[in-house]
Design a protein that fits this description.
α3 packs across α5 and α5 packs antiparallel against α6. The radius of gyration is 23 Å and the shape is elongated. It has a two-stranded antiparallel ribbon. It has one domain. It is mainly alpha-helical.
Amino acid sequence: MKRRNRLAYLPIAFPLLAFAEITVFLLVAHAIGTLLAVLLLVISTIIGFTLLRREGIRGWHAFQDAAQAGRPPGPEVSHSLVGLAGALLLAIPGFVTAVAGLLLLLPPGRTLARRGIERFAQRNLGGAVTGDLFGPRRVRVHPGTPVTVVVPDDTPPPPAGAIEGEIVR
């Protein structure tokens, strides 16, 4: 079976999101009143646009600082992308997108999303590119009995001082 491109689901996702936004708005308007619900949407949109500007400027400065210091810019860029996505979702009028945006702006959600971006980059860009973006991979070394591996006679021995370990993703 052929794997579909995720972008192929957008024509289905947008109408579902619109339906969810309208349904949640009607439920909130019924619970707290229409005027207050509209006021909450306007306030969240204004806050979202304000945060878009702030997150963009903050991300650009973090990228410049990392580049000037010679550090890999990936962590700063991914942190900024998550903040920009959260601010953009907050700027879109609607309660569902506002809640999703708030989750991306708060530290636990931002950390989870940033790690997801880094894992996505490692899977799709390869080790060399992600090493340049995010720095060297961290490995966990397990001391203990080495595993016996049968090696053909013409294979050179491992270099002295080699450390056995595994790559932890």
